[in-house]
Amino acid sequence: MKKTRKCHPEFDFSRVSKDDKKKCDTSIRLRQLPDPAQCDRGFNLMKNYFFHIASDFISEKEIQSIIRINAGYLAKLNCELISKDEFLKVDQLYYFVVTGGTEQQILDLHKKRLVNHTNEEVVLLAHATHNSLPAALEVLARLQQDGIEGKVIYLPQAGKYFNKDKQVNIRNFADRELLAGKRIGLIGAPSDWLVASSPSKETVKKAFRADVIEIELAELKELFKSISNSEISSIKTDFLAEADSILEPSEKEIDDNIRIYLALKKLISDYSLDAVTIRCFDLVLDLKTTGCFALSHLNDEGIIAGCEGDLVSTIGMMWAFEKTGRLPWMANPAQIDLNENSLILAHCTVPCSLVSGYTIRSHFESGIGVGIQGEFYKQEVEIFRFGGKKLDKIWCVKGKIIQTGNDENLCRTQIKVKLNNVYSVQDLLTNPLGNHLVVGKISH
């Protein structure tokens, strides 16, 4: 029997109708418009070359499938696939970002090309699935931090006009005192791909007067191994009872996720932490489990917990929670629609108290462990992101959740947000501050 769960105050809206709650296909059908810089048929006549970059979590067969799916877009850019042996030789190279987790690889390849191609603009091709877009935005954010010219071409809208007169909604950020004295546990180093989201302890201290406490991931692993079945029993019962359904995870995978939660709770107590962020993909590789339930449950308990060792987004979540007392959600901008001025955000974890219901799924990228697929209410939200080398910038917009989704090629919890007309989703393509965004009710 499913229990009734108490939701956080910002989500105490009237229940949506049955029609509204039906899961919808979040794939965006886009009308292509000609780019005035291209010829009148919408094609780029200059020969370009692309090299694809993908994470180890995806097979070669899947890579080739993604390239085929995007072949029409690549043809419009007159792009030809080259091998790794050739990528140093061609004059103009486009980096086709097949999956997320590839950001550092792209920067390393660019560095190699600089030997023979100085001052080359870095062109990143992003597509609509597999966290391609957020990876491209993270790379561009880092390039812009370093003063390097680059751009993102989002393939489903490669021919869309940009409004060059539209002012980017990034401003200096000064409201920093809320986190003074807070202790943030960084468990393991930030994920390698967070090339624009890994500030030093000193930068965090100077920007927010908060302390970063570095903790070896090995400590968590040892605690994980020590947790007995009896310790997880009651937590597991509640988690399963409140779920709408369970799809992929086995009982052992659910048990191991709860062990990660209890191990994190012990570290939080031992180090007197106010918040944590964890290098969670190493859990997939080393322990064959995920941290998605742990982070969800910690957030529900009022302990801000961020993914992937992302200090910037964890600080953003902390700031939002301190300012409003309302839980935020951290997610990837997975797709955009310039015509509709909307974006789809997705992640494999969500605080269960923020959603009307949830399904226990596997983790999207790895296919193992536990991911949480939640259904948000339709409501007004704010989306923001801190950034800049000194963490002194903020991008903040307002909009409304108009759909939830169940696209199997994106992380499990998905929402589509239409921005208010005074804001523009094109900011993300031209001036991103990084990949993860924070969603909540901020009123800032």
Description of the structure:
There is one protein chain. This protein is an alpha/beta fold. It folds into two domains: 9-27 and 170-440, no CATH class; 48-157, Rossmann fold, CATH 3.40.50. It is 30% helix and 23% strand. It contains 13 helices and 19 strands. Strands 12-13-18-17-16-19 form a six-stranded antiparallel beta barrel. A five-stranded parallel sheet has the order 2-1-3-4-5. A four-stranded parallel sheet has the order 8-7-10-11. Strand 3 (93-97), helix 4 (103-113) and strand 4 form a beta-alpha-beta unit. Helix 9 (251-270) packs across helix 11. The longest helix is centred in the middle third of the chain and has 20 residues, at 251-270. It is globular, with a radius of gyration of 21 Å. The chain starts with 17 loop residues before the first helix and ends with a strand. Residues 1-44 have low confidence and may be disordered.
Question: Main attributes?
Answer:
Rossmann fold, 2 domains, five-stranded parallel β-sheet, 23% strand, 444 residues, 19 strands, alpha/beta, globular
